[in-house]
Amino acid sequence: MKLRLIDYVAWVVTIAVMWVLFLWVGDFGLLPYLAQSPVSQYVENLWRITYVSASGVFGVFMGSLIFLSLRFRYVEETAQRQATRTDYSKIVIPILLVSGVSLAYAMFQYTSNLMEFQFDFGILASLMILLFAAFIFVVYKQYYE
Amino acid sequence: MKAERAAEISTIVFAIAILVFLGALSFQYLGYITHGYYISSNEKPIPIKVIAKQYVWEFIYPNGTVSYDKVVIQAGKPYVFELTSADVIHAFYIVQLGLKMQAIPGYTYDLYVLVNQPGVYNIWCAEFCGPGHYTMKGELIVVNATG
């Protein structure tokens, strides 16, 4: 199956979305709780470079995983199933994404000190992993069951 | 097939380049932090002894004053914490500096600190040191140099 230009564009866009999402979750590699000090500046520099590099890896792998899973799904079976079953991914995915973003936003409203920030950040990271897992699960259930 | 091969090689080269760059930068920063190279040579760091004990941080200033779990320093001035332990292994962790060093009985390590922003910062023990480990918390209070 040969990819068309629109497929390549969709692939790149998916990668870019995953890349930006990863950066957004990690506050673009910034560590705002650090004090102004040469040492903390060194720490933040190293963290930012590592995080931005990791975001590139995440974007390429997660974006490709999602794109290729959808692009090379088993079309015949999908066509049969689409006639008989509800496309529940259209309901589940928006709910997952909206609830995740809302919850993350709500949590950050109550962040006032370092320990709460770290706790919220851990919860947020776990939530994002859960969302990705749920997203992939839904995609697979939809097309490969 | 050529394009795939080029993509594969460029991925490897890019990963190596990033890791080498990070390694070199970390090595340079480690030197700065460990030896206090970021402190200008005409400024002599003020020594403060730090003795870790289950479950308290003891600070001894140059004039002999002793304080527990709280240390006050001036913003913009360099200090060196002479870190040791009186019992078991602890770790002196100043959270907002991202700075951590182990306190080991029988050894003294120098920890250079220069904070430019006044405030109250957390000091935690970052090495499990006993059942009261979680209570071993202190504060680094940074005040304006004028006040």
Give an overview of the whole structure.
The complex is a heterodimer of chains A (about 140) and B (about 150). Chain A has about 140 residues and is an all-alpha fold. Chain A has two domains: about 1-70, no CATH class; about 75-145. Chain A contains five helices and no strands. Chain A has helices at about 5-25, 40-70, 75-85, 90-110, 115-145. In chain A, helix 1 packs antiparallel against helix 2 and helix 4 runs antiparallel to helix 5 (about 115-145). The longest helix of chain A is centred in the middle third of the chain and has 34 residues, at about 40-70. Chain B is built from one helix and ten strands, in the order H-E-E-E-E-E-E-E-E-E-E. Chain B is elongated, with a radius of gyration of 20 Å. Chain B starts with a helix and ends with a strand.
Brief account:
The complex is a heterodimer of chains A (145) and B (147). Chain A has 145 residues and is mainly alpha-helical.
What value does the average pLDDT of chain B take?
92
Which percent range fits the helix content of chain A?
over 70%
Strand order of the main beta sheet of chain B, please? Answer: 3-2-1-5-8
The topology string of helices and strands of chain A comes to HHHHH
What does the radius of gyration of chain B come to? 20 Å
Please count the beta strands of chain A (DSSP E, at least 2 residues each). 0
Compute the separation of the termini of chain A in Å: 22 Å
- The CATH architecture of the largest domain in chain B can be named as Sandwich
Figure out the total of helices of chain A: 5
Provide the succession of SSEs of chain B.
HEEEEEEEEEE
Beta-strand percent range of chain A: under 5%
End-to-end separation of chain B in angstroms reads: 69 Å
Keywords (chain A): Membrane, Transmembrane, Transmembrane helix
Transmembrane segments (chain A): 5-26, 46-70, 91-109, 121-140
Transmembrane segments (chain B): 12-32
Protein name (chain B): Heme/copper-type cytochrome/quinol oxidase, subunit 2
